[in-house]
Design a protein that fits this description.
Layout lengths: L1 H9 L6 H7 L11 H22 L5 H12 L1 H10 L10 H5 L6 H19 L1 H17 L10 H11 L6 E8 L6 E8 L4 E7 L2 H17 L1
Antiparallel strand pairs: 1-2, 2-3
Amino acid sequence: MLTQRLQQALGYTFIRADLLTQALTHRSYGSVNNERLEFLGDSVLNCTVARTLYDAFPDLPEGSLSRLRANLVRQETLADIAAGLRLGDSLRLGEGELKSGGFRRPSILADALESLFGAVFLDAGFDAAQGVVRGLFDPLVAKIDPKASGKDPKTQLQEMLQSRRLPLPDYRLVDTEGEAHDQSFIVECVLAKPVINTRGVGKSRRAAEQEAARQACEQLQK
């Protein structure tokens, strides 16, 4: 079943199946939905990420830690993680949202991911919910360059080019691979000066753009 695969990806098996079902239920589906769980999960997420950053970067001041946290818990990052989990496959959506592709919409994916954190918290307590969050976010924290002040690769690349009075990059969707429920996006980042062309792959177009931008930053710094 899809929910079994999702639980394996999360690294957590629910005791109460009703909590999992509610976390995956969008408001368009019915009155019993995931909005309240999202509220709870948002707090769990912010607290866990804050503690993780606090431990990982003992020399960073509060302002820098806040910027790093904001970058990690924003909608785009959450949606990218949810897409990697194929969370959209398990969502319960109303007919209108299904027809409009709501299972791919970043806001719906991000909200559902937070709802899952809230559901785990109610199911087994804060330590269990924290474990799920850290399992998903620790790899992202490990990649953080504290000198970048929490800026994502696209922002870093833009600022690097602007500081050198160079043209801004052009992002081009090259291809999509896989079935509609499990697509990978391939995006090129093209710089006119200096001539740099990189290619990123991700579970969302934004993730692919960020990966292409990251590679461009590395080449620009050489």
